[in-house]
Amino acid sequence: MRCSIGKRARWSAGVRAAVIAAAVLLQASAPAPDRAPFTVGVLRRDGALLPFAAWDGRRWSVPWPSDERHAIPIAVSDVPKKWWGPVGPQRAWTAWLTDGSSREVHLTGVRRMPVFCSTRTALLTDYRGELAPAGEPTVPKDGVAIAGDVLVHEIARVSAQSPDWAATAVRLLPAFNDAENAAIRSFYGWRHPFPDDERHARPIDIEAIYRTHVDDGLVSYVEAVRSYPPRAGDEGCGLITFVSGWVLEHGEGDPQYELEGRIAYCDRNDVAFMQPLGWVQPDGHVYWIYQLSSWRDEAYAVTRVAADEIEDEVLYSGGWCPATDR
Q: Under a CB-based contact definition with an 8 Å cutoff, are residues 144 and 127 in contact?
């Protein structure tokens, strides 16, 4: 679900000129597009690899099954050919880790793995990261693995100490308020216990900013929250508004916001957070690869990003539990 929000803020001319210059330099130095096919999978810390998207040179597809209604292959050689996508089963896999390193990984088996309350069929590899926490419903992701010859680039994480961190909170405020209002209206017959003027007077806290230079602008993904004090019956856990989504900055125009708000309690049940895993450029367009996860589910996504448009290409369910009341 995406919604464009109005009330945009401006950067100073000097800052915007510097951003555009950096983006032009990056574009000039980018490698030529490579339309060769490849397959993408998330690489878990325990070495399990879950393929979830494939590029055939022109478009994305999801050949690896996400449901549980199939027989589990006994060995890698028994995996149905159609599951591999256009690259086939013989291509070597390269792990692109979130610490910026890469290494070759080898497939060692197939196993159905528990993820939250469901299971997924995963490939086993010889990769091992740090010991994953025991008893958790899922396993942290250390990066992506690619079967094919595409380069994976890092999605920048803006530092909380950066001047842009605090400035983003100011620029984002009108769009945040609009996203919060839309989230409130989505509840039929419900009114927020805090009136509009009191809500909008409360500050917002930026929790994450991820960013990529594209074309002559910037694409950012932001996560921000506004917290409210607990009321009677809240059991010490007050309401929050969590807003996340895209900020597109192109040329000298105002930023475009594609944000979604969610009303929740401070335990953040059902709030989804992004983990960026990298971006690829197989056809001249930039595609972000990332995970969205909450306390009860996770999904893996590919989204084409440009300074004037966002288009979702793949959204793959990595595992889930049924929703429960708070």
A: no
